[in-house]
Amino acid sequence: MKLQVLSHSVAAGISTQIGTHQLEPEAKATAEFTDKLDTLFDMLNSTKPLGEKPARRAVTADNDVTDQLLDFKNWVSLWKFEGARSMSAIKCE
User: Fold this and answer.
1) 9 near 42, Cβ under 8 Å?
2) What does the alpha-carbon distance between residue 89 and residue 10 come to, in Å, rounded to a whole number?
3) Could you give the CA distance from residue 25 to residue 27 in angstroms, rounded to a whole number?
4) CB neighbours of 43 closer than 8 A, spacing ≥ 6?
5) pLDDT for res 43
6) 1 lies in a domain?
């Protein structure tokens, strides 16, 4: 079984629950974050020139995947981590 926590389906579910007032409107930021990470993961896992959705297309000279990845790089650079004294204090193992 494959678990996909950061997926388009999860983002859509959060958006649906906002629309039905089961979640507060502030949850929209979580839905958008989840959807963006899903797209980024798709782009980083792409291997074929033509995927079923644009984010699943491999980087080629004929598409704008490189530009999109640079946009994601800029987006990630804006992240703030609460409680972290510095970026070097954030450990990934």
Assistant:
1) no
2) 30
3) 5
4) 55, 56, 65, 68, 69, 72
5) 86
6) no
| 46 belongs to a structural domain | yes
Which H or E element spans position 29? helix 28-45
**49 in any annotated domain:** yes
Burial tier of 57 (Cβ tally within 10 Å: 0-12, 13-18, 19+):
buried
The phi and psi torsions of 43 (rounded to 5 degrees) equal -65, -40
Structural domain for 61, as ranges: 8-70
This prediction's pTM: 0.73
Spans in the chain with pLDDT lower than 70: 1-3, 51, 84-93
Counting every residue written for the chain, the total comes to 93
Burial class of residue 10 in the structure, from the number of CB atoms within 10 Å of its CB (0-12 exposed, 13-18 middle, 19+ buried): middle
Q: Is residue 42 situated within a structural domain?
A: yes
Number of domains the chain contains: 1
